From TrEMBL, chains A, B, C, D, E, F:
The active site is at P2 (proton acceptor). This is Tautomerase. Its EC number is 5.3.2.-. The lineage of its organism: Bacteria, Bacillati, Cyanobacteriota, Cyanophyceae, Nodosilineales. Keywords: Isomerase. Belongs to the 4-oxalocrotonate tautomerase family.
Length: 68, 68, 68, 68, 68, 68
């Protein structure tokens, strides 16, 4: 009975993409560990880019740096 | 000093129901483990149904299947 | 289909106490929000006291201060 | 830059199976959302069966019920 | 490659304050544990005060009590 | 009343380093957001390197790649 939490930046993931993530992760747990899908939970969190930091700065600033 | 995180699907839980969850969980920790309520945190997350998966599909789709 | 995570300091909680927490939280979600127990997960994490901080210090140090 | 946390019951998952989970989830995020693998984290938590509850009871008790 | 999650009540933290948190936590991990900032993630969650409980009640109620 | 969770790979962080993390994060929340230290929790999780993935592989394998 796995529980999976996926955190991504909020940048327009569609309902279909979320559905694909849920299906894909669940299939993976069935394939690799023989888990039952009926007791597999997946929770997706979308996080605003100002709330996500990497390399000591918010994501959007990080990307500007990376492009320089 | 427990920390409790309750994740539920976002489906109209009222402020009173949240208050009841917070009180109920805190009382439980006091009763079972003799924890101090003053250092017991409870955080409730409401998750959109398209962001919660079970059995390899989003919750709303799962419910449609279950009703068939 | 709630997911509840309970974090407590590791200080000898027994299997029976954990069972009581699991049952108590699940009952609470049934009572307050009419959730189905069959799709309610509870995960308990025990955290070493040196890994839990409050008031800027590890728990065991905090308790020494509090007793002074 | 996704962060994925996979919680499973501690029941002997091998290093290879964990490697397969890490690779599988990362590939999924690349395929579905075009995420960069280099900034994709996956953290696996194995949880003792007495610390995981479903249907108001610990997992091992739940399985005994289910088999009856 | 640390992952840090900071949960605070939603009470008007500014983008600058969030940037300061992200920078401060990352610097701390570099200083104390010599971690690489490039693989250090920080995720900030703001939680509505009705969703955060302490001492068995929601935060806003707790503050009213504390002021009495 | 913030709650901070710090996840690091398990590689011999000392009690003193954990104490420094707890103090440093708490001070940061006091300085940046004027939070009360008495209601600031910090929980540190050490994760085995085989349970932490980056770039689609476990940390130890990733480091071998990076050194090549």
């Amino acid at each position: 009975m796995p529980y999976v939490n996926i955190k991504i930046t909020r940048e327009g993931a569609t309902s279909q993409q979320k559905t694909d993530l849920i299906k894909g992760v669940t299939d993976l747990l069935v394939t690799v560990l023989n888990k039952s899908p009926n007791t597999t939970f997946v929770v997706i969190d979308e996080v605003a880019t100002e709330d996500w930091g990497i390399a000591g700065m918010p994501v959007h600033e990080f990307r500007n740096h990376a492009q320089t």
